[in-house]
């Protein structure tokens, strides 16, 4: 089963501890630091739209783009709780073929979504597409799981559970291919019975220096790296790195 096909229905339950508010605050601090005042924001790889909702509630016009129809269906359902005039507009598009009807003032791609591009050429295409999707002066913000983090996940097993969902993650890192495989068994309670499904998620271990090079190749300037939602340079053993880049 493809990534997020089965997980979509229980993703929010299992990831209740993700601090989307902290991501929004960091985004706004970087906008202020880079002198960007965004009105239209693209939430790239928006998933179930939790960050999209927050952005909309804070007064931004929001487009949410994601490859997964199942995750977007969850996002659309959640958006119904917002007034119609501020609801995000969702589109189903892969990052490397992103195409907007109008340019955005800022693009944010959160929760290591970029690592899901398993081919470096797709990452380079994504940077070019994001560059084209931005207005002059626009800001691009994204984060990655670092190679150190992905290597450290090798052989690890993780458990997540709620009253009606049980999820087991098993991880394996292939150093030669630079790929981290997450095998995921999902058990969901359906009446008196537990239903099992399986998904495989794969992340590519991108080196920060190569991402810097590809951002500059796409035309971005003022490329900066930060630790995990903090306004300082990444430490040597950083598990998650944020990048910001501007289109002049």
The percentage of residues in β strands lies in 25-35%
Spatially, the strands of the biggest sheet line up as 3-2-1-4-5-11-10
Note the gap between the termini. Answer: 41 Å
Number of helices: 7
Structural class, by secondary structure, is alpha/beta
| Biggest beta sheet summary | 7 strands, mixed
Tally the beta strands: 11
Quickly list its features.
7-stranded mixed beta sheet; 27% helix; 7 helices; globular; 4-stranded antiparallel beta sheet; alpha/beta; 248 residues
Topology:
Blueprint (H helix, E strand, L loop, with lengths): L10 H4 L5 H14 L6 E5 L5 H8 L3 E6 L2 H11 L9 E4 L11 E6 L10 H14 E12 L1 H6 L4 E5 L3 E10 L4 E12 L2 E12 L3 H11 L2 E6 L13 E7 L2
Helix pairs in contact: 2-3, 5-7
Q: How would you sum up this structure, described in words?
A:
By secondary structure, this protein is of the alpha/beta class. The chain is 27% helix and 34% strand. The strands form two sheets. The chain has a seven-stranded mixed β-sheet with strand order 3-2-1-4-5-11-10, sandwiched between helices. A four-stranded antiparallel β-sheet has the order 6-7-8-9. 35% of the residues are buried.
């Amino acid at each position: 089963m493809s990534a997020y096909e089965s997980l979509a229905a229980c993703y929010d339950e299992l990831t209740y501890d993700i601090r989307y508010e902290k991501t929004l605050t960091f985004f706004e601090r970087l906008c202020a630091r880079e002198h960007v005042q965004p009105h239209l924001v693209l939430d790239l790889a928006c998933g179930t739209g939790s960050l999209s909702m927050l952005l909309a509630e804070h007064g931004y016009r929001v487009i949410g783009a994601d490859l997964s129809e199942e995750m977007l269906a969850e996002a659309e359902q959640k958006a119904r709780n917002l007034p119609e005039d501020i609801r995000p507009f969702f589109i189903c598009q892969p990052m490397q073929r992103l195409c907007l009807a109008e340019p955005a003032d800022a693009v944010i791609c959160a929760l290591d979504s970029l690592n899901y591009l398993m081919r470096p050429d797709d990452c380079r295409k994504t940077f070019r597409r994001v560059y084209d999707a931005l207005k002059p002066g626009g800001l691009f913000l994204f984060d990655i799981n670092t190679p150190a983090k992905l290597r450290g996940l090798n052989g690890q097993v993780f458990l997540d559970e709620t009253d009606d969902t049980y999820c087991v993650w098993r991880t394996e890192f292939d150093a030669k291919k630079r790929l981290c495989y997450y095998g995921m068994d999902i058990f969901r309670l359906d009446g008196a019975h537990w239903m099992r499904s399986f998904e495989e998620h794969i992340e590519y271990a991108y080196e920060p220096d190569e991402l810097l090079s590809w951002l500059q190749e796409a035309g971005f300037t003022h490329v900066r790296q930060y630790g995990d939602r903090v306004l300082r340079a990444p430490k040597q053993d950083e598990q998650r790195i944020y990048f910001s880049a501007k289109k002049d």
